[in-house]
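yo, Sugar transport protein 8-like is done. seq:
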Amino acid sequence: MPAVITSHGGYVPEHDGKITFYVILCVIISAFGGLLFGYDIGISGGVTSMDDFLIKFFPAVYEKKKLVHEDNYCKYDNEYLQLFTSSLYIAALVASFVASKVCSKFGRRTTLQIGSFFFVAGVALQAGGFNLAMVVLGRIILGFGVGFGNQAVPLFLSELAPARLRGALNICFQLFITIGILIAGIINYFTSNIHPHGWRISLGLAGVPAMILLVGSFTICETPTSLIERNQIDQGKATLRRIRGTDNIDAEFDSMVAASEAARQVKNPFRKLMKPSSRPPLVIAIVLQVFQQFTGINAIMFYAPVLFQTVGFGSNAALLSTVITGLVNVFSTLVSIYTVDKAGRRVLLLEACVQMFITQTVIGMLLLLHLKPAGSLSSTEAIVVVVLVCVYVMGFAWSWGPLGWLIPSETFPLETRTAGFACAVSSNMLFTFIIAQAFLSMLCHMKAGIFFFFAAWILVMGLFTLFLLPETKGVPVDSMVERVWKQHWFWKRYMIDDDNDDDNVIKG
Ligand code: BGC
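structure:
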């Protein structure tokens, strides 16, 4: 019998069990959490470039935009406009720590339910907003939804998945993010021509997936791992039987109970996370999220319509180009699902660094040489920019996008997994916030130099990957310490035994 990694990280013989219809349903419903995250990422750029929206909430930006002589790079530079986009992420950052506690105390399903309430409330406030405060408040509440959703969904997916499909199902989260971004782009394309309330439709249509998530979250089950962790042993067993569609679950069930008992020995996962032996996965989880954001991806995802207008497209063409990059994003994520367990994580990350470095540098040079503060690129040059952006997005979508979430979910030992993952989620939100808040000002001050700034970061992350990121492909989660960290030329120095630390272990 082949050995595989279980959903909770144990190394045990492969278990019986099919992919039941019920599991598929649960996966799709929960992945709507990712879709809503993606929708929120994708919708704001289009909305903030719509004149009706600007006239209502940001008249100063609108006036500036109308001035033909206004500096290309600066026409959208307004800290309040950026605050509209970025407020969501700062709220999500705070929420993810609360969500991590809710997740372990009350379960993944409850966390998702709370998240979907936030989504519905946030959408209603935003779409009905009649002043800026209301719209920003709506966005903050949506941020709570994102914080709860992003903490619960990846854990939910990997705990529900049969072991052999864990990696692929984990990337479904990212796939749904990209689908959300794409749908938002398409909707913006159509609503931008609906006056004066197109922006309300764009923001309000998030209500559809939010309602699906809300209603759906009452039909999905709790994960067996979470039930067992919370001492609902019989229910855990019954759920496992249901989702695997077989009675032959004893081995998997026993290994879940054993892993949960071992994890229960650790009294304070956050304190354990501060110990030297937790440093390698912690540093890698945080650094990968920081790097993911410093690829500059969200400069494109949030502000693509703005950016494409900056290089000279009309607003419709700019929104259409955004749809094109959205399609590239979705299809390239599929490539990752197929290759990640074959080619390995490092190959994908390194290849993408080369691809992204070249494209960012060439875009920077093109703008530097041809886009003056007033005037625009020729149409051929503008098309070349769109093509380069597509090649760049392609590289991100099969590497730093999905792997930024996958690697932190597979490198922590069980006892620090939820806490460690919360650190990863909140670092992602922090740096997403920074980019969302700073990008338009950076574009205004650094002009084309912003692309060289991101290219320099890509160089740094390539070097980090080359020297400090170990390959985790095919390594059972429970063997990570022995087979990865203790063997690594650099990280092995942290692998000292701190397991018997009085602070961490409950005395038996
Ligand atoms: C990132 C988002 C990004 C998206 C693009 C995700 O993995 O966390 O910040 O916008 O990928 O597809």
